[in-house]
Design brief:
It is a single chain. This protein has about 325 residues and is α+β, with helices and mostly antiparallel strands. The chain is about 25% helix and about 25% strand. The strands form six sheets. A five-stranded antiparallel β-sheet has the order 6-7-12-10-11. The protein has a four-stranded mixed β-sheet with strand order 1-2-5-3. A four-stranded antiparallel β-sheet has the order 13-19-18-17, with helices on one face. Strand 10 and strand 11 form a beta hairpin.
Length: about 325
C-alpha cells in the first residue's frame, strides 16, 4: 500500500468539488483494508467508493481510504436461483450489465445508478420499484476498530427507504467489502413503475426481457438526469418524503394535482422533485450551482462550485418547500 499526502478528492466524487484529504490510500483487497485500519493511528477516516452519495464541504483532515476491491463471481446455484458476489469496488452499473450478460434477472431496474457496489446496501439504493433489500442476500464488512470480518444477512441490515443499519446504529463502525445478491434465471419483471411501459412501447420492444427493461431504464435516466462526467451532481439530492395520510389529504385539498403513493402504516410518499419544481426551483442557477432544468431533484455543479455553495442552495430549497407545503425534505447525500 502506498500512502499519499494532500490528495485532491475531486476525481473521486461525482459532484466534482475541490477538496483535499491529508492522507489517501487506494485499497484493492480486504487484507489491505485491515492493515490500513490498523495503522491509521486513530485519525479520522473517510471511506470512499464511487463518491456518488457525498458532498465535500471542506478539506478532510484525516485518512481517506478508497475501496477498489474488484471481482464478480457466481458463488452458488440452486434451481433457478443464482447467488452472485461482487467486490465493494465494482462499479454498480458494471455489475448490472455483467449479470444481464449471464442471463440473470433482478438488477435491471437499477441500471445506470452511479456509484460502487459497496455503497448500495448502506443507502438501500432503489429505482423504478426495486430496492437492494429485494435482491441482496448478504454482505461482508470489516469493523473499523477491531478489523473483525463479519457477515450481515439481509434481515440484519434493517433496510428502510434509503436507510439501513449502517446509517444509524452501526454508522461509522463497518466498511463493506463485498455484497452477495440472489438473482434468478427466470424473469420476474417490474415494469409498472414510472415510465418503463411507455418507454418500452416508444422503443418498439416486441419481447420484454430483462435487457429490454434495462435499456428502457437507461433511456429514461439519460433523458432526465445529467451525466456526472459532464455536469457535477450526486443524482437525487433529497429523499421522497413520506407524510401522514391526514397531512397528504389536507395538502391534496389545496393542491389537487399533488401526486402520492401508499407507503404503508398510514403514510403517503410524495415525489420530492414535484415539490421542488412547484416551489419554483427547476432550472434555477446561481453562479456555479443550480437545480437541473430537466429534474428538479438534482442539484448541479456547473463548474468551480464549492461544497458550501451546494449545501447552502440545498438549505434554501428545503426552506422553500417547507414554507409552501409544510414538508421537511431530507438529503440523500452525506455532507462531509
Amino acid at each position: 500500500m502506498k500512502v499519499l499526502e494532500n490528495v485532491s478528492l475531486k476525481p473521486y466524487t461525482t459532484f466534482g468539488i475541490e477538496a483535499k484529504s491529508r492522507y489517501f490510500i487506494d485499497i484493492q483487497t480486504v487484507e489491505e483494508l485491515v492493515e490500513a485500519l490498523a495503522q491509521s493511528g486513530g485519525q479520522e477516516i473517510l471511506i470512499l467508493g464511487g463518491g456518488s452519495n457525498m458532498l465535500l464541504t471542506k478539506d478532510f483532515p484525516g485518512l481517506a481510504i478508497r475501496i477498489s476491491i474488484p471481482g464478480i463471481t457466481i458463488v452458488r446455484e440452486e434451481g433457478d436461483d443464482v447467488w452472485v458476489k461482487a467486490g465493494a469496488g465494482v462499479v454498480w452499473h458494471q455489475l448490472v450489465l455483467q449479470t444481464l450478460g449471464m442471463d440473470l434477472c433482478g438488477l435491471e431496474n437499477l441500471s445506470l445508478i452511479p456509484g460502487f457496489v459497496g455503497a448500495s446496501p448502506m443507502q438501500n439504493i432503489g429505482a423504478y420499484g426495486v430496492e437492494i433489500k429485494d435482491v441482496m442476500d448478504e454482505l461482508e464488512a470489516v469493523h473499523r476498530t477491531t478489523g473483525e470480518r463479519k457477515i450481515f444477512r439481509n434481515e440484519d441490515c434493517r433496510f428502510g427507504y434509503r436507510e439501513s443499519i449502517f446509517k444509524h446504529e452501526l454508522k461509522g463502525q463497518y466498511v463493506i467489502v463485498s455484497v452477495t445478491f440472489r438473482l434468478s434465471r427466470v424473469p420476474k419483471l417490474h415494469i409498472a413503475y414510472g415510465d418503463i411501459q411507455k418507454t418500452l412501447q416508444e422503443m418498439g420492444v416486441a419481447e420484454i426481457t430483462p435487457k429490454a427493461v434495462s435499456d428502457a431504464v437507461i433511456h429514461i435516466r439519460q433523458s432526465k438526469l445529467p451525466d456526472p462526467a459532464v455536469l457535477g451532481n450526486a443524482g437525487s439530492f433529497f429523499k421522497n418524503p413520506e407524510i401522514p395520510r391526514a397531512q397528504y389529504d389536507d395538502l391534496k385539498a389545496v393542491h389537487s394535482d399533488l401526486p402520492g403513493y401508499p407507503a404503508g402504516e398510514g403514510r403517503v410518499k410524495v415525489p420530492a422533485g414535484w415539490l421542488i419544481e412547484r416551489a419554483g426551483w427547476k432550472g434555477y442557477r446561481d453562479g456555479a450551482v443550480g437545480v437541473h432544468d430537466r429534474q428538479a431533484l438534482v442539484i448541479v455543479n456547473f463548474g468551480g462550485a464549492t461544497g458550501a455553495q451546494v449545501r447552502d442552495l440545498s438549505a434554501k430549497v428545503q426552506a422553500s418547500v417547507f414554507e409552501k407545503y409544510g414538508i421537511n425534505l431530507q438529503p440523500e447525500v452525506n455532507f462531509i
